[in-house]
Design goal:
mainly alpha, 2 helices, 0% strand, elongated
Length: 77
């Protein structure tokens, strides 16, 4: 098991030594895709927050329809 893993690691190291431009391009692609995913997620969060702010600013009493707020509290002490 560990011998096979060692040989695989040596093979990967040798491939990186022989093909550095390929692996640099591969790493650049991975980072680009990760950055693109982060940007898309940030835009989705921004748009969702904007939509929530728009809903809250339209009419703040809509969600309080048929709700009575009691300020006097009666305790049996």
């Amino acid at each position: 098991g560990i011998f096979i893993v060692g040989l695989i690691l040596i093979g990967f190291g040798f491939m990186i030594y022989l093909l550095p431009k390929f692996f640099a391009t591969l790493a650049a692609i991975v980072f680009f895709v990760a950055g693109l995913g982060c940007a898309i997620t940030a835009i989705k969060i921004f748009l969702a927050q904007r939509q929530l702010d728009k809903i809250n600013s339209d009419d703040s009493m809509v969600y309080r329809k048929n709700v009575r707020i009691h300020t006097e509290e009666h305790y049996d002490a």
